[in-house]
Amino acid sequence: MFTARDLRPTWAEIGLAAFGRNIEAIVRPLPAGSRLIAVLKADAYGHGAIELAKRCGPDRVAMIATALLEEALELRRAGIELPLLVLGPLTESQIPIALEHNVTVGVIGPEELESVCRVARDREITIHLKLDSGMGRMGVIESEMQRVVELIRSAPRLRIEATYTHLANAGNPSDPYLEQQIARFDRMCDELRRAGLTAPRHHLANSAATMRGIVRPGDFVRVGLALFGAEALDVGTSRLEPILRWRTEIARLKELPAGSVIGYGTTFRTSRPSRIATLPVGYADGYDRLLSNNADVLVRGRRAPVVGRVSMDLVTVDVTDAGEARFGDEVVLLGQQGGEEIPAEELAKRTGTISYEVFCRISRRVPRIYK
Ligand SMILES: *Cc1c(COP(=O)(O)O)cnc(C)c1O
């Protein structure tokens, strides 16, 4: 029997204690009656949903949300007993499967509600109902409210535990759209109330709104990104502790004369005698090819630039100025080493994306090691 560590020196370390501290830091300032829904969709943004779900105690976490039914079932199979909420659309045939496994359906519109009502003819169903307050993707829109009210009235075995909505730009405090969305959500909830359909719970806030304290007493919050210690605001300092550290080791170290070519496409040529380290990681691991000649890694606590193209399985870095780098040294691609750090936001900026995608793209080929 060998462990992941014996297979390759490229892995992502996930700090479970830091994850626990982030949960604490999110839950502590919540107003009275508010509770945390931990969003662990897409394998907890690449951090590993099962391992993190095991760290979600019922005293701190009210529910775990996923995007897919498959993701929720994976957690159930792993023995997770917390209430689970699926945020994404379900087909009619998936709804009974969700019920069998005690997974709450976050109904995303009148079409899905019709399916739910058909299933609710012969059994009890509890749902969260999504209202579109202005995101434009999922949720019931105002002009559909009457039809939705009639559908709900026709299904006496259907119980709405919560209404919820999703915010389009909560990471930007100067965008007034947030207030407009809250106002529309309130209007839609009032309309349901006037029709005699009161939901005991509401949830609107994602990481950004939660970190900004935009949470009303009793409302749940749906937090993903902030749990993993990435910055939730567009420009901000609300970051908690990063929990992921992606590391590898120098697999080849060579001294090359000035004028040497590095990598596909001959995009880099040494301008001086250089020490070039080859790392056993590449775009197939999720280290974006757009980082070619466009990123730093950490060696011996110092930054060293990626030189040449990122290939499928290999990356080359110039360690000429990185102290006494040696064969076998640890190299950090994302996260901290010594007093230095490559934050996810930095890689995101260099590749024209957001930290969410940087995490999600770290591929299955990279073992996750939990500490
Ligand atoms: C992904 C998601 C969240 C979590 O968003 P973060 O910005 O990661 O906190 C919350 N609600 C819904 C509906 C989502 O899809």
Describe this structure in words.
The chain is α/β, with parallel strands linked by helices. Helix 7 (110-119) runs parallel beside helix 8. The strands form 4 sheets. The chain has an 8-stranded parallel β-barrel, surrounded by 5 helices. The chain has 12 helices and 20 strands. It has helices at 4-7, 16-27, 41-45, 49-54, 69-77, 94-100, 110-119, 145-153, 177-194, 207-211, 344-350, 355-360, and strands spanning 11-14, 36-39, 61-66, 84-86, 103-107, 125-130, 158-164, 201-205, 220-223, 244-249, 252-256, 261-262, 268-269, 274-279, 296-299, 302-305, 315-318, 330-337, 340-342, 368-370. The radius of gyration is 24 Å and the shape is elongated. Residues 39, 41, 87, 166, 206-207, 222-225 line the site of pyridoxal-5'-phosphate (PLP). The site of pyridoxal-5'-phosphate has 10 residues, from strand 9.
User: What number is the mean pLDDT?
Assistant: 97
Low-confidence stretches: none
Gap from first CA to last CA: 20 Å
Tell me the Rg in angstroms: 24 Å
How much β-strand is present in the residues? 15-25%
- Portion of residues within helices: 25-40%
Number of helices: 12
Number of strands: 20
Structural class: alpha/beta
Numbering strands along the chain, what is their spatial order in the largest sheet? 2-3-4-5-6-7-8-9
